[in-house]
Structures are given as C-alpha cells and as structure tokens.
Amino acid sequence: MADESAAGVVVPPDEALSRVVAIVGVGHTDYAADYAASRSGDPGHEAPDDDSLCLAAFEAALADSGLTRDDVDGLSLSNMYGGADLEATAARLGIEPTYAVRTGGLMAGLIPAATVALAEGRCDTLALVYSAASRSIGRVFGGASHTNMGRHSYSYYHPWGWSSQAAHWAMMFDHYEREYGATEADLAHVAITVREHAGRNPHAIMRAPLTVDDYLASRYIVAPMHLFDMCLVNDGGVCVILRRADMTADLPHPPVLVAGWGSDRIHHSKMHFMVRERLRPQLQEAAAQTFAMSGLDLGDVGHFQAYDASTIHLVNQLEGTGFVAPGEGLEFAKAGEMRLGGSLPTNTSGGLLSEAYMHGWNHVVEAVRQLRHEAGDRQVAGVGASLYSLATTDEAFPVLFTRPEV
Amino acid sequence: MAERRPDRPLGPGHDEFWGWCAAGELRLQRCSVCGHLSWPAVADACERCDSTELTWERMSGLGTVVSACTFARDYFRDTFPIPWDTILVELDEGALLISDPVGFTRDDIGPAMRVAVTFIECEDSAGPFRLPVFAPA
Asked: Which of A151, A163, A174 sits opposite B75 (nearest CB)?
C-alpha cells in the first residue's frame, strides 16, 4: 500500500552510467521474528523503532559486503515514518559520510540517484538505509486521518466514502473482471504463487501454503479485493550497499551491476490511466528507457521483482511491462509461468504480499541474492538479468540488474 | 435530513465546483486550448496543457459505469453503512468520476450500465453541501 506522499526520485537514464555501479552488500532485519513478537502480546516485547531497525539492517549489509565502516563514505537515508536526522543516524551507524541525503522512503529512483552520486565522485561506497515501523506505530492506510493530500489522492474522494490504497486496487480489478471476464478465483493464483515462493524463504513472514478455497474464504477489505490480495503490515529495515564497480574485485560476492533504469508518471486523467490502462503507457515508457540504457531487452530478463502492494498490481506490471499481453496475466499465473521453473519467476522471496512490506526494498535484496546465485532452493537456475519494478498508482520506476558477464 | 459526510476538499477550483453543485449543476473545467476536462478540479491551470483558459462547462450528467468497489472495511468509523458501494462513472463528455450509486448496488451493474447525475443533501464540517451521485438512467 504505497503512500502517495512518498514520491519517487526522477533521474534521467544515461547509457554512460550503465554498469558503473554495483550492489555489494544487502542486509535486513528479521521480518518474521519481529512480526511474531509484535503479534504475541508479550508484555516484554520492545517494539523496534526506526533507529534500531536502521542499525540492524546496516550491520547485516556491512557484514554481507565484506567491507568495514571506514569504507562507507556515503549515506542515503529513507525512514518511511519519522526517525533520526542524517547526522544522528550516521553517528549511530558509526560512519562519517562525505555525502549524505535523506529521501522519501519508497525504493523508487534511489538506486539511480545513488549511482549518479558515485559516478560523480561524491563518494565511493554508499549505504542506502531504510526503515518502517509500520505495525508498531499503528499505521492506518485510509480514512479521515488522511486529509487534504491533494487532487491526485484518494482523500479527494472522501465525501463519497472512497478511501485507502486498497480502493485503488479494487477499482482496477473490478474493471479487469468486467473487461476480460476474469474472476476472483483467477486472481487467487497470483497470491498462491507468491505465497509458495515465500514458503521457500526462511525470512518470509507468511509461509503457509494458500489454496483457492482459503483465498475465496478470506474476508474482503474492499471488494473485489480479499485479505490475501493485500500486502502485509510489519516493521522492518533494509540496507543496500552500492560501490563503484571498479572497486569490487576483492569482495566476497559477485557484484550485481546497475545496468539500466527508467521512470514515467501519470500527468493527468489519473482515473483513466490507473483503472482502464492500469499504467500500461507509463510502464511501457519506463521499461523502454531501462532497456535502451542497458543494451538489453525484455527477452534477456530471467527474473522479475515487482511491487506487489496488491495481487492485481503485480499483474499490472507483468502486463504493462510487456511480458504478457493485457488481459493475459492471470492465465500466465495459472499456467505456472510466474513460479520457479516457469518462464518468468516472479517475486521469488514472497514480495510485499508474503515476505514483508518493505516498500520495494526487499525486492532489491532478492534480486541481488538471485543474481549472486545464492538463493538456495528458490534459485532461478543460471539467471543473469533481473528486472525490478516499482510502480505506485501514479508512477513507474524500473531498474535492471545484471551479473558482470551479462 | 442532510447526510453527514467526511470533509470535502475546499479551495480555488474546488469551491467553484461545489458552488455549481449547490445550484444543481454538474460543471467541470474545460480547457479552451486543448479541450481537456480537468477532474478533480484544478486551481487555475489545465491538468493536461497548463493553459489557464478554463471555462466551467455544464455536463449532460449522463454517463456509463466503468468500475465499482465495495468497502467491507470501515475506514470512516460509522459514517457509512458497511458494506458501502462506490462507482467509477465515465461521463459522456469523457471525464471519469468516482461517486456513489443511488437506487442500485454493485451487484446490479451490467455491461455499459447507463446512469444520470442527481444531487443529495449532505453536510461536513464546513457546512451543508450537495453531493453529485448517480442513479440508473
């Protein structure tokens, strides 16, 4: 459930910046343990805050990278809901960055912006750090507490009783059903597939297998969207460490290169582009930019990590990016093409729906693990290029990651 | 009796829209340069081409239901009876409006269902107002 207040950072694609920066470290908090603790009602449970989440994620990523604190001279901080300032965070992390920025939170345009900073020599090694204590702060995702968010926001429609991110997905899927004759039982296969992947990920919050019957029996949030169509709400932190690609030779893992990116947004007629087009023009434009920058094309992509704030939005990105034709996404899911072993393994760690709601950050971590070929029993065999797609209800921000030989 | 509703967005553009609703007219801002209808209302410039040549054009009030959804979750705490239906209507002039169905439910919506605007008496913290909703045409 992307918050519209957190818009992405627009960085124009530039072929000269392709493959000059690599992800060298990833780390995150223990989503499943924190979720279990927060749900246990244990009076001894101390809810994590932004500071503790950032530190835990940073330490995990640093250990993964094989670097030391002294190596990290850049910081890009994304606290979703509050948190300490840059100076205090740097001190807590134990680093002295020469380049430090604070960003919105969503993993949208942050890696391109970091690539520019590294390419311009503002720093050599940059830690992108994110936290969101969504569950502990009791974050709600609609209703009267969200007012005056502007004419593009759901808050505009409150007099008619229309509110929440869930309502966007519901309007999209109701239209999809009418347009293509699809059913809720068809959409269930998207949730089931992503859950199946989460079952192979020890870090995922929701790992129990899901059936069509379970799905159909689950309560509606905003019909036609069921509970299992919606992403989780949990606390967590993620850190991604980027470094100049020419400084990665001695590191323990193969570098994961930032090969290309793009972005586009809805400028007007939001309901038309969101409900009827399901952002296809924006997704097409952003993908075209990404492939032009990287020198690759759709057929080179062996793994897809897309922002599954809801099941239908994962379908929107599959179709809109061009992997399947509009209206064919649910058949693609039913045929097993999104599964491990299918033609396009998608959201292989369980995504926002079943792994953790980390505003797209956990998708990047999984892309890195897949491209390092260290994803264990959910590894996509021989994968060389992974497309990450962050699309909100307004914007599209894909990034293409590759192995060095691709 | 007026129905209590969550607060309307007010301000430049929006105030004019609600003023026309009070007069029983559904009017949207038409751009004289590119012909686009901006909705939701804009303060002073076309959402498509940025021109400030806008006129408040009266709509036919007729349209087609494009999509709908039903709130099972009560986001507004007892303001609306749950389940609560909302619809997306494409006016014959082309703009897409989120609104409420009157005299029908989401289950009644067939292919290309035709609807017509009507206004209901409401109030929010800024006072009474008339809300455009849609009934079967």
From this structure: A163
Q: What distance in Å separates the CA atoms of residue B122 and residue B127, rounded to the nearest whole number?
A: 8
Q: What residues have CB less than 8 Å from A364, skipping those under 6 apart?
A: A23, A26, A107, A111, A238, A240, A305, A388, A399
Q: Residue A275: which of B67, B83, B86 has the nearest Cβ?
A: B67
**DSSP-H helix ranges across A199-236:** 212-217
pLDDT of residue A147: 72
Cβ-based contacts of A272 with chain B (< 8 Å): 96
Sites in chain A below the pLDDT cut of 50: 1-5
Tens-digit pLDDT profile for residues B55-80: 999 999 999 999 999 999 999 998 99
Q: What is the pLDDT of residue A139?
A: 77
Residue-wise pLDDT tens digits, A167-204:
999 999 999 999 999 999 999 999 999 999 999 999 99
The tokens for A29 are 């908090």
B124 touches chain A (CB under 8 A): yes
**pTM (global) more than 0.90:** yes
A34 inside domain? yes
What is the residue range of A106's domain? 15-139+233-247
Asked if the Cβ–Cβ distance from A159 to B7 is below 8 Å, we say yes
**Residue A23 lies inside a defined structural domain of this protein:** yes
pLDDT of residue A3: 37
Contact residues, chain A, for B36 at CB < 8 Å? 268-269
Tell me, what DSSP letter sits at residue A272? Answer: I
Count up the domains in chain A and report the number: 1
Note the pLDDT of residue A2.
34
A60 within a domain of the structure (yes/no) = yes
Residue A359 lies in a domain: no
Q: Residue with structure tokens 């797209």?
A: A360
Instruction: Check if B91 contacts A (Cβ < 8 Å).
Output: no
Write the residue in A142, A158, A172 that is nearest to B7 by C-beta. Answer: A158
A contact test, residue of B47, B73, B119 with most A CBs within 10 A: B73
The single residue listed with the structure tokens 């264990």 is: A376
